[in-house]
Amino acid sequence: MSTPxxxxxxxxxxxxxxxxVLHGVNLSIGRGEVVALLGPNGAGKSTTxxxxxxxxxxxxxxxxxxxxxxxxxxxxxxxxxxxxxxxxGRGIFPNLTVRENLLMATFSGHKMxxxxxxxxxxxxxxxxxxxxxxxxxSGGEQQMLSLARALATDxxxxxxxxxxxxxxxxxxxxxYAQVAAIAAEGxxxxxxxxxxxTVLGVADxxxxxxxxxxxMAGKASEIGDDVLAGAYLGS
Amino acid sequence: xxxxxxxxxxxxxxxxxxxxxxxxxxxxxxxxxIFNLAHGATGMxxxxxxxxxxxxxxxPAPLALFITLFILCPLFGIVTERFxxxxxxxxxxxxxxxxxxALFAFMIGLANWIWPNDASREAxxxxxEGNSISIGGFNVSWHRLITFGCAVVVAIILRxxxxxxxxxxxxxxxxxxxxxxxxxxxxxxxxxxxAWGISASLAGLAGILLAGDQQLNIEPLVxxxxxxxxxxxxxxxxxxxxxxxGAGLLxxxxxxxxxxxxxxxxPQTAFGFSLSGVRSALPTIVLFIALLARPQSRLRVxxxxxxxxxxxxxxxxxxMGAVALxxxxxxxxxxxTRSNTLLLLNGFTFAMVTLxxxxxxxxxxxxxxxxxxFAGLGAIAMSKLPGNGxxxxxxxxxxxxxxxxxxxxxPALRLSGIxxxxxxxxxxxxxxxxxxxxRQTFQTGNITVPVLRIPFVTIxxxxxxxxxxxxxxxxxxxxxxxxxxxRLGRRLVALKxxxxxxxxxxxxxxxxxxxAFAISAGIAACAGALAxxxxxxxxxxxxxxxxxVLLAVVGGVGSVAxxxxxxxxxxxxxxxxxxxxxVKNLTKIGPGTVGITLGxxxxxxxxxxxxxxxxxxxxxxxxxxxxxxAFGIWALDAxxxxxxxSFFVASVVWILAVSPxxxxxxxxxxxxxxxxxxxxxxxMAIATGVDWSSALDATGKRIILIIGLVALxxxxxxxVVENSPRVHTASPDLAGLDTDFSREDIELAEQKIGxxx
Lengths: 235, 757
Ligand SMILES: Nc1ncnc2c1ncn2[C@@H]1O[C@H](COP(=O)(O)OP(=O)(O)OP(=O)(O)O)[C@@H](O)[C@H]1O
Ligand SMILES: [Mg+2]
Fold this sequence. Notes:
The structure holds 2 protein chains of 2 kinds. By secondary structure, chain A is α/β, with parallel strands linked by helices. Helices cover 34% and strands 26% of the residues of chain A. In chain A, the strands form 2 sheets. Chain A has a 6-stranded mixed β-sheet, sandwiched between helices. In chain A, strands 2-1-4-5 form a 4-stranded antiparallel β-sheet, covered by helices on one side. In chain A, helix 4 packs across helix 6 (139-152) and helix 6 (139-152) packs parallel to helix 7. Chain A is globular. Chain B is mainly alpha-helical. In chain B, helix 1 (2-32) runs antiparallel to helix 8 (188-214) and helix 11 packs antiparallel against helix 16. The relative contact order of chain B is 0.09. Chains A and B meet through helix 2 and helix 3 of A and helix 6 and helix 7 of B. Adenosine-5'-triphosphate (ATP) is lined by residues 16, 19, 21, 39, 41-47, 194 of chain A. Magnesium ion is lined by residues 45-46, 88, 161-162 of chain A.
């Protein structure tokens, strides 16, 4: 741990209105590290992602990116600074065409021609459908499109929330292969999954969240079934 | 044949204006979810601005156009978005609509102020006035062609902007998913600003084109937007091509109606009723049909936690309030001059109309923009029904209008939110264009509504009418409270909170909505029927309803007290205008200005004031002290020890500065209690001891003095006792652990869990 972590949450509390969801979460991601955030339904995983991405302002605690305290920065400012978030559900605009979806990725500062070129090279299927409305594509294709933003814009940090939701195992494997490729380029990744098995292969570190607090953090390879079962059953 | 061509051209150019207006509405609605009722008023202001630059200051037309449409309009749109609309996230549709109503009222006030109605004004010329071109033997003015051309250009530009530029794509992206736009690095706020800027320019363009046709008049320019609503609804508030199509059809319909209505075979009357108003009501009829033809919107589960919350009124508070109201009115009515009595009476009439919105809008969350229409119907019924205004007549009038209200609501049952609001707006305009101009209703333009006749009591003086009005308000208020506390009341609130949940629980949405409309129409009718004076149809027009709706929401439409407050505020605004001539112009923009701030305090003013009185109401001993004090001040005045003005100043200071501080005062540490008590005593001494009717010569100065005294002594005393423990509402989690339970805690907890509906 010589270099400071690229992303750090310090004692973050957050919630919706009067409901508290996160009760002091501590989390840190090193440069180039892939961290899996695991936990049962309602643990606060998506809420954590919302806090990091700037969509939800923490009620206490700090969000630190590359050593700078950015608590309270807007989501769009963080996005332009190199934080790429693929939110829960499909991270696409259903009523825009594939091409227009990619155009939205240019807010990151990349040229449209570059983005298109890289996307269509990775996912030729999207190239064939560039004028189709994104909402009319299959679930897998939609998820490819949302990953395309991560691939084409060279983010410093990538946040993924349940990429696998509602997709066939084969497609999930294909998508996580892409995530591994992105990570191999040195991008730090935080990936949220409910089904731990899907990600533990990709991740270096795993963090277990339950009831809004971190229950344990450790090497991904060391997380065993018993630990997971215990956390999920709430013991 | 040639006539057909002529009217087609006329229709298309009218349609072109509708299209430009409607497209602006669609652009802002889709990007920010706010249906801008003030859109037409923006066009009106911009037409006036253009006139100022072009015809008063003689700037060349292109320069004047550029300044108006490309600098001032976008700037106005951007400022509106930034400082008014942005604060509205998480508020109900009612509040959002009310804020645009406020903007509407503000802009009309502003235009009246800057450009007072003045016949000798320089004419507003058409573009290339006097030039025309012959098409198929018919002379078409260049202005019409330019109008048509503008619509085409607008269509093309919008298409390019929305589909070919990143800003435009981002506008559509925001509609799809606002958060995701942010995650992409887009800035939805800027996108909204851009949309509001474009929209204001579109409104401006339409306003200028229309003013060339119809001259500068505030009313038609503002109401232009109602016609455009129809086009926007045909476009389902999102499709621009359909909107343009709808606008074209609307224009053609109007022109063809004009064409055939001149024919000898065309009926001028139907069943003895004149059809002369039908043409001007056409767009609203289309609007009504378009609304009804909309595909059923799906019931939404109450996903967003709203910022407004209202308590269930308690009988004790309600009865105390009702009695206090009547007692106070009886007490002070003897001191008022005749004109002030009439003004206050007016305020109570408004208050009854705003009260009609409490069950419908406040409880059931259904917005109506037509409260005065029902009041007008009530006034007609009262004057036309036999009995010359006895109690039976009143009751029958109320029942009839309540039934009308329910019948009107029938087709609108499937609508909610802005669609319902628009349907009621359409209804209001239709009634004033078609019903109020009949021989059988307002034949000479004015009718006399008889004063209510009650056995053994003669109501002949303004004072008696004022007391009657306060008694009626008190009774109606109690009825509304009774409704809220009944099964029906819980259903109404359920309808607002989550129609989907209510329906799945087996509740009949239909009957609940009908009941809400009927009750509301009945109360409004009662207000109209009690007018007891000459009334004119103009009093009951749609545009007059808007300030009422606005002030009901500003006062706090969720409670009876809010309705009273809103109504008196509206009445008080006109009081202010007559007694303080220097601020006359300010009062023109008054209602609008207070409404614009709604985003900060969506529950309304009454709720806020109520909050500061709540600790007091909990303690009967303190209520007694407060009431005794007020009575004492009144007695001083009645015994001629102090002047009326001193009475007024002293009682306001007592009620607003001293009373709310009483609970904190009794709970404070002894040292602080003495300090704060002494401070308040000094305030009361100044308020009571000085003879304000001779010390200050103008009412305006006295009002400013009152505000100053309340702020200085009330807030001052509050500061002093600040550090002592005060009655507060803790989080339900903490109550019982590190704070004591109070009744509010229990109420709050129940509200959070949803035990109390
Ligand atoms: N917008 C919201 N308003 C109120 N409460 C919310 C909101 N979003 C989430 N919550 C609550 O916050 C808690 C945590 O939700 P979150 O979405 O973070 O869980 P999660 O770990 O992502 O679960 P899942 O695996 O099901 O996606 C839940 O109890 C949920 O009900
Ligand atoms: Mg989640």
